[in-house]
């Protein structure tokens, strides 16, 4: 272990992060109001359970050993207004359909983790925004303020912490009800169809795959009888644990387990902007028992990454730490290999996951933030090749996507152009893959990696 990691204090509490520099936190103008909201939040029921958290950690340990593939995806930033049954079920549909493609093509189980039921906070490049000479706080997600450009809307409102918990609970409740009710039953993948893509260029290939899986399932059940495991799937949630007051309030001890669990989500992660070794987020994350992830950008060096691994997973616990690299298609070739080599040389147990979205964001002349499908695919292609060359394994993908008929990323099956963006650009923050582009990317992953042996 590095000397830097040894210098971290051993005493940890859910509040010890408050002694460190906490980046990307809102400025609340009424500390008493904030205290009342956090007190209420700390007494509300948790959103997930400790046994679910530990089950995910074991599944991630399997992924580290090459026995599973992680599919993590969902919205860039959830909004309270999108907490509706059609939007939630469409998010679940696209992840289920992508996982079906991956299971069929990779010939191994897929671990499904949604980027929702808590993804209400977003980091921003600047604390303020100026329009026509008026400067207001930046929009930081529905858990903090509103996107409308008024002083009242942009005020950091502590009551939104309670609303975020409620909307996360509603989302989790509906997802659990769908899965327990047979929505994910492999006997009926037609339940997952999205009407707006009936005439997609990928529809024929996908339905051919569904038919082949159905035939195989019926054959096995003819020989062995009904196979109950195909009627439901395991499904987990994740979000960037950015707003530390919120995360602290839902960090609990539970009976018959040692330590502390973040029970706002199964799988929290640290973003690239808040991953400083001596920062508040690393201090908070090092003490919770959840499996955790860290976004790794092109500026990170081996000398920075190795002490971070030591701090977050000092016991080299299986399933504990996932590294999500997000380099951009133009930089991944130079920036990723030194990190892979260093982690392999030190023998550290991590799960490597590719995020081909965040390093490939650009703005058009008309002001739209977008991503080119070719760049997303290009970064993912290079990631597989670089891991193969280093003797490491790319064990998953992390994607911003939606089941809605949006036009936010250019290219893909319908070759969306810059002119198409204005038709259905709905994201409040970052551009997302739509259903067709998501399914196409799943098929490309299969073609690139082939069956895992």
TrEMBL record:
Top-rank taxon, per record: Bacteria
Family from the record: Belongs to the class-II DAHP synthase family.
Keyword field: Cadmium, Cobalt, Manganese, Transferase
Cofactor: Mn(2+); Co(2+); Cd(2+)
GO molecular function, one term: 3-deoxy-7-phosphoheptulonate synthase activity
EC number, as in UniProt: 2.5.1.54
The name this protein goes by in its record: Phospho-2-dehydro-3-deoxyheptonate aldolase
Naturally occurring in which organism (per UniProt): Dyella monticola
Cofactor: record remark: Binds 1 divalent cation per subunit. The enzyme is active with manganese, cobalt or cadmium ions.
Example of a GO biological process term: aromatic amino acid family biosynthetic process
Chain residues that bind phosphoenolpyruvate: 115, 295, 326
InterPro entries: Aldolase_TIM, DAHP_synth_2
Keyword Cell cycle belongs to the record: no
Binding positions for Mn(2+) per the UniProt entry: 76, 358, 400, 430
Keyword Acetylation: no
Reactions the enzyme catalyzes: D-erythrose 4-phosphate + phosphoenolpyruvate + H2O = 7-phospho-2-dehydro-3-deoxy-D-arabino-heptonate + phosphate
Class in the EC hierarchy, top level: transferase
């Amino acid at each position: 272990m590095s000397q830097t990691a040894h210098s971290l204090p051993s005493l940890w509490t859910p509040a010890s992060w408050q002694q460190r520099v906490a980046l990307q936190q809102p400025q609340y103008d009424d500390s008493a109001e904030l205290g009342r909201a956090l007190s209420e939040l700390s007494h509300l029921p948790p959103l997930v359970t400790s046994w679910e958290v530990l089950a995910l950690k074991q599944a991630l340990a399997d992924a580290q050993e090459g026995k599973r593939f992680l599919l993590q995806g969902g919205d860039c930033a959830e909004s309270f207004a999108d907490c509706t049954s059609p939007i939630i079920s469409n998010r679940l549909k696209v992840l289920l359909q992508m996982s079906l493609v991956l299971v069929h093509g990779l010939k191994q189980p897929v671990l499904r983790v949604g980027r929702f039921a808590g993804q209400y906070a977003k980091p921003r490049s600047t604390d303020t925004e100026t329009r026509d000479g008026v400067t207001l706080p930046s929009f930081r997600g529905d858990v903090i303020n509103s996107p409308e450009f008024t002083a009242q809307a942009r005020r950091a409102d502590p009551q939104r912490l309670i609303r975020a918990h409620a909307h996360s609970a509603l989302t989790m409740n509906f997802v659990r009800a769908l899965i327990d009710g047979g929505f994910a039953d492999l006997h009926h993948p037609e339940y997952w169809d999205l009407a707006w893509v009936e005439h997609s260029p990928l529809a024929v290939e996908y339905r051919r795959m569904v038919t082949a899986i159905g035939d195989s399932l019926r054959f096995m059940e003819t020989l062995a009888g009904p196979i109950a495991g195909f009627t439901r799937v395991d499904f987990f949630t994740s979000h960037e644990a950015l707003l530390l007051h919120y995360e602290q309030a839902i960090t609990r001890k539970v009976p018959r387990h040692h330590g502390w669990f973040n029970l706002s989500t199964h799988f929290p992660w640290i973003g690239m902007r808040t991953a400083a070794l001596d920062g508040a987020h690393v201090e908070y994350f090092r003490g919770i028992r959840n499996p955790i992830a860290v976004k790794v950008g092109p500026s990170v060096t081996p000398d920075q990454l190795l002490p971070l691994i030591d701090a977050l997973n000092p016991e080299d616990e299986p399933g504990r730490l996932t590294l999500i690299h997000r380099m951009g298609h133009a930089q991944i070739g130079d920036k990723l290999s030194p990190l892979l080599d260093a982690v392999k040389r030190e023998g550290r147990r991590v799960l490597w996951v590719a995020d081909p979205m965040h390093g490939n964001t650009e703005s058009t002349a008309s002001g739209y933030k977008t991503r080119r499908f070719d760049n997303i695919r290009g970064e993912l292609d290079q990631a597989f090749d670089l891991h193969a060359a280093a003797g490491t394994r790319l064990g998953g993908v992390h994607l911003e996507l939606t089941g809605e008929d949006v036009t936010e990323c250019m290219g893909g099956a319908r070759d969306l152009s810059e002119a198409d963006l204005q038709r259905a650009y709905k994201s409040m923050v970052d551009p997302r893959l739509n259903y067709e582009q998501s399914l196409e990317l799943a098929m490309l992953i299969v073609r690139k990696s082939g069956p895992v042996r």
